[in-house]
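Hey, why these numbers?
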Amino acid sequence: MSSTTPSPWWRSAVIYQVYIRSFADGDGDGIGDITGLRSRLPYLKSLGVDALWINPWYKSPMADGGYDVADFRAIDPLFGTIADAEELIAEAHEHGIRIIPDIVPNHTSDEHAWFQAALDAGPASPERDRYIFRPGRGPDGTEPPNNWVSEFGGPAWTRIPDGDWYLHLYAPDQPDLNWQHLDVHTEFASILRFWFDRGVDGFRIDVAHGLAKDPELPDLTREQVKHPHWDRDEVHDIYRTWREVADEFDGDRAFVAEAWADTPERLAAYVRPGGLHTAFNFDFLMATWDAKDLRTVIDDSLTMLSDVGAPATWVLSNHDVIRHTSRYARKTVARWVPNERYQPQGPVDLELGTRRARAAALLMLALPGGAYIYQGDELGLPEVEDLPADVLQDPIWERSGHTDRGRDGCRVPIPWSGQTEPFGFSPDDAYAGPWLPQPAHWAQHSVAAQTGDETSMLELYRTALRIRREHPALGDGAMTWQDAPAGVLAFRRAPGLLCVVNLSDEAHQLPDHTAILLASGSIADGQLKPEHAVWLAV
């Protein structure tokens, strides 16, 4: 890092996202679990990451892959036990790796004890006040209370037999909590302390922008200045309280917000002093493969975050979006519109996508702040776009009337070794196949196939992360843009590192340098090829 004063770990951390169902299966049931994750900690240490963000591992009926939580203080038996989680946390810490589980405060499962009590208690009961129940509109209350739409398709309201309707911005199995109720605040503060006491180093907050709703529950209209349920100012009061809870514990406990905001200014509000520590930078993930667009996103993000003293976090893929190797595999990479599902267009050229993904990795890891790596990014995994319809499990598939295939394509279990399924994901004596089928070409992407191959994506990531740890210019700090030809990004990190990314259609001469630290592909005659990136010592 450029500063001689040590800064909190989370300002520069490279955090690896573990979608636990698809990472490593320890017991042979075809579903990833804590035992499998523990067995792969040496791999993660050798990769060079600082922390693991683990998608929900709580007790759940799994209507939405664990994001429908029935008990926040219990581990789902699919994944293990509380004792398993405590052992994982301790063992990860021995490897120098921190643990950041997901927390899901916008909603619970419909099997949560609170919601079951609300159903039993009847209309206008105190138990229902913890959720958002309302009578319907129209004759006999047969119409939903307003026109809000579920993120998974269809109305955001479900009617129950006694006539009341309840709000669910996602699946009907995921009723929204009422964050105007004191019990909800008290319960989540208790949940945070429960896991902090067990050694977790922070939380990733799911749907951090969605907790506060307009109490009048107005219809959505084009004329609204403030959205009635996304990114409302009231959410920041919640997170100031959460920050106080985190600050009760030693060790720089930290939060990262999954917050979708319309502008960098709105995103920066989540990480003001006294608020959350970091927030995902989705503008970077949504950008096109265009130097001008990327530079604008980088500048806007760094400017707004620096104004509130927060670090940037950069991410290319996650469990909710198409893998970036496949997104970049279209000649024209369309800009992603916020709050809309990304639908890739055009023929797939995975060689092109892989070149761009390698270059994007060096860009991301050279930028100031922290970075997130989704499991399999380091293997160059593409989206599995041809999963048979009868294996799709994402609720989006059903809720959309089979018009949106959902997110299963980026959630296929990752390959570790071997030539055939399950590619080392499950033990040799597994009694069930992977919960989503793996394509035959997973063999060439496996950890075993790439280890030791200096041209592989895995070794590129390992080398980049090693240099990032060792080089004083990388991590938190500042950057300075350098003059570059059209279609080329070049910026300096002090002391002594220059990152150059060629997004144009022609090769360009490398700027003056003393050594090539790392390149995303071969360099000949001092020329940086199209869709390539390089780190230079200067």
